[in-house]
Every structure is written in C-alpha cells, then in structure tokens.
Design a protein that fits this description.
single chain; 118 residues; alpha+beta; two-stranded antiparallel sheet; flat
Amino acid sequence: MKFDPEIHHRRSIRLNGYDYARAGVYFVTICAQNRECVFGNIIDGEIVLNEAGRMVQTVWMALPGRSPDVETDAFVTMPNHFHGIIWITTVGAPLVGAQTNERPISLKMQKRKLMVIS
C-alpha cells in the first residue's frame, strides 16, 4: 500500500520535556523521499538490497569512523526506509581530522563491561 497522509497518521513518540540534543542511545528511522522503494525489494520474504541499499548500510557502519563519540548498533535496511540504533556518547563530537589519537572507552563498551561483571 502506498503511503497516503490522509489515512496514515502517526503520533509523535518523543518524550515530553526530554532534551534530544544530549548524549544517549537513539532509535532512528530514515525514509526515502515519497517512501519510494529505492533501497531494494522483498523477494520470497527476504530483503534484497540494491546498490543504493548497500550504500546506506556502508555509510551507517562507517559512522563511528567519522566521529569518535558515535557508535552504531543494530540496524535494518528496508526497501523504502532504514531503522538503526545509534549511541551518541558526547554532544558536540568532532569529526575525524579534529580528533585525537586517544579514544576514551565508549559508553556502550562501559555498559557491556558492567553487564559482564554483574
């Protein structure tokens, strides 16, 4: 079914009063323009990515290399949209080139270590 804004109404799931500019773990969804299936197709119940879909995945997985304070987690590319979980450990993180060689342990790794210790 093609997207129809007259019948497809979505309410915001943002938390009232939450500062989304701060560090944290975020679930993101990115939709293709006009929700066109530009990233691939579903064939026999499986996503088959085309070149654009593979590019989306490549860019997503390269994000931590662009900023030392960003980590990516689970993600899925669908024919007309993308879902991913991103960890932003420091607000105002510099891009590569402005970073130092020292990389502090990420919030994600700290939490994983706590889970192993507990």
